[in-house]
Write a structure and sequence with these properties.
The complex is a heterodimer of chains A (247) and B (316).
Chain A lengths: L4 E10 L2 E11 L4 E5 L6 H9 L6 E6 L2 E2 L5 H7 L1 E4 L11 H13 L13 H14 L14 H13 L5 E5 L7 H14 L4 E5 L3 H7 L2 E6 L2 E6 L1 H6 L1 H8 L3
Chain B lengths: L4 H15 L1 H7 L4 H26 L7 H16 L1 H4 L6 H23 L5 H20 L9 E2 L14 H24 L1 H11 L1 H6 L5 H26 L1 E2 L6 H14 L5 H20 L4 H14 L3 H6 L3
The chains are: A alpha/beta (247), B mainly alpha (316).
């Protein structure tokens, strides 16, 4: 059985710095695969290449068997994968609802309509409201993103990624900056998502990683030093030395 | 972009005053006010079209004068050749659409090149293209070179006498109202919300699956087309097309109008344009260095009212 996401021999260097060094990675349908490693291990660089924002120097990326290595970001989203950002990227001046409705509009196509007003279009608003409900933001639908709390913006970020109806979500530190209760809520939310969407999760919050991940890949210096089930990773001496031991 | 009650009152009063301008001008014995009003309408159309790019899409084009000038020269050059081309070359119904289409077609090509860049590079490359047109028309001696091209009579509109300045003022006013209705409609459409999203966060738009380029190009072309209409009115108003209309200072003035009025609000561009035209006329009466006064006013507006005159009216 071929994996949903297959990364083979991915390499990227910035001048003398090797950020990604022959990365191989599989994400199966229906699993949460965590990508961990110390700061500077190349996790975010790897996500950026998989999402299509950075062009790799070598290697291939396949999504459900289709080679997407040369596709730009929007085409990869249409092919079924999208990312969330470590530093929240939402439309700050728009309301939460308008943010998600915008994703819905892009997903449906038809953005070259110049005449009919978009703001009261139920074909966009109804699915957007449902998505906000799902991430627990329904009560804050009409608040501008810039007036949302940090935690609420992380929820919005997730809602926007989900609204593209991806088969694979690339989540770059969804817990970043969240308090303990917010983290727990986000963890529960991600666990519930597993039924329908595979997730490649980059995260520093080890409690969340071990609670969620079916498999874990550990990066160091752009290279995979270990990959396997959470228990095996926890016990791996190389990992303990490189990363967990320090924590 | 819902207007506050105060803004609606100001809008209503402004347009009522504008509609009554010929009577007011007659009552105070200043017929030149009518020309001033026409000029304000024409510049407001140009500024509103630039606001679609600058304010809504976040593309600070520093070459908008090119489209204004191309629209003006399209009308001027066709009239110049009217003897060979036939009487249609003097008819508004034939010439004005061409003054819209010529800039739009060129904007499709030039925009496709300019939009490969962003930020400062975009400002510089749009400026460079506009200056290219400026020097082209300075060099075209057939069409007057830097002396400009005189339009012997205004484009013919059935039922309107070509020398009737009041009638022409109403033509400009109607054009302005139609352009504003169109731009408002576009702003609220799905297309308009995409432009708004691109301005706010282009990276996020791409992560939604949107390829921004076609939308930016469409905005660029639409904006140039409307500026072309402003150019057609401009050359008709003064019966004169000169390379000055294409000069980078005109592009700069249009940007100042948009910023003065308030970016992205559409009405702001209209008020900014009107304010500039009126300030110019008033200040130029007592000093030729009128920009010495304009400068501090602009600084004050930018510092005190970040969202421009129109934004300040809206409160909050």
């Amino acid at each position: 059985m071929s994996a949903l996401l297959e990364v083979r021999g991915l390499a990227k260097r910035f001048g003398g710095l090797v950020a990604t060094d022959g990365l191989n990675l599989d994400v199966q349908a229906g699993e949460i695969h965590a990508l961990i490693g110390p700061n500077g291990a190349g996790k975010t660089t790897a996500i950026a290449q998989i999402a299509g924002e950075l062009r790799p120097d070598a290697g291939t990326i396949r999504l459900a068997g289709q080679d997407v290595t040369a596709l730009p970001v929007p085409a990869r989203v249409k092919a079924g994968m999208t990312r969330s950002f470590q530093i929240t990227q939402v439309l700050m001046q728009s309301t939460a609802l308008a943010n998600v409705a915008m994703v819905e509009q892009v997903r449906q196509g038809h953005s070259f309509r110049l005449w009919r007003p978009a703001a009261r279009d139920e074909r966009l608003l109804a699915p957007a409201r449902a998505m906000l409900q799902r991430v627990g933001l329904a009560a804050r639908a009409d608040v501008a993103a810039e007036d949302l709390s940090h935690g609420e913006r992380r929820q919005l970020e997730l809602a926007m990624a989900l609204a593209t109806h991806p088969r694979l979500l690339l989540l770059d530190e969804p817990m970043a900056g969240l308090g303990a209760t917010e983290s727990a809520a986000m963890t529960a939310l991600l666990a519930a998502l597993k039924q329908e969407v595979a997730i490649l999760l980059v995260e520093h919050d080890m409690d969340a990683v071990f609670a969620l991940a079916d498999r874990i890949t550990v990066l160091e210096g752009g290279r995979v030093i270990a990959s396997g089930a959470p228990d095996a990773i926890r016990a791996d001496p190389a990992v303990r030395e490189a990363y967990l031991g320090a924590a | 972009m819902r207007e506050s009650p105060r803004q609606i009152i100001v809008l209503a009063i402004s347009f009522a005053l504008l509609a009554a301008l010929p009577w007011i001008a007659g009552a105070v014995g200043r017929p030149d006010f009518v020309t001033l009003g026409s000029q304000a309408c024409v510049m407001a159309i140009a500024a509103a079209s630039l606001d679609l790019l600058m304010g809504r899409t976040g593309l600070p084009s520093f070459g908008h004068a090119a489209w204004l000038g191309l629209g003006a020269y399209t009308v001027g050059i066709l009239a110049f050749h009217a003897r060979d081309l036939g009487p249609w070359a003097l008819q508004a119904w034939a010439v004005w659409p061409l003054a819209v289409l010529v800039p739009a077609a060129l904007a499709a090509v030039i925009g496709a090149l300019c939009l490969r860049t962003s930020g400062i590079s975009f400002i510089m490359i749009t400026l460079a293209f506009a200056q290219m047109f400026f020097f082209l028309f300075v060099a075209l001696k057939t069409y007057g070179g830097d002396d400009g091209l005189t339009l012997r009579r205004r484009s013919t509109i059935p039922g309107i006498a070509p020398r009737d300045d009041v009638a022409f003022f109403y033509v400009c006013l109607v054009a302005l109202v139609l352009v504003l209705l169109l731009l408002r409609r576009v702003a609220a459409s799905r297309f308009g919300t995409v432009l708004d999203g691109i301005r706010q966060n282009e990276r996020r738009m791409m992560a939604m699956g949107l390829a921004p380029f076609p939308y930016k190009l469409a905005a660029f072309v639409l904006s140039a087309a409307i500026a072309g209409l402003a150019g057609a009115l401009h050359v008709n108003l003064f019966r004169f097309a000169s390379p000055d209309v294409l000069h980078w200072t005109m592009s700069g003035e249009l940007m100042v109008m948009v910023v003065l009025g308030g970016l992205g609000s559409l009405w702001g561009a209209v008020f900014g344009a009107a304010a500039m035209v009126v300030l110019h006329a008033v200040l130029a009466q007592w000093t030729e260095h009128w920009q010495i006064v304009l400068g501090p006013i602009l600084v004050a507006v930018v510092l005190l009212a970040r969202r421009g005159v129109w934004g300040a009216l809206g409160g909050k």
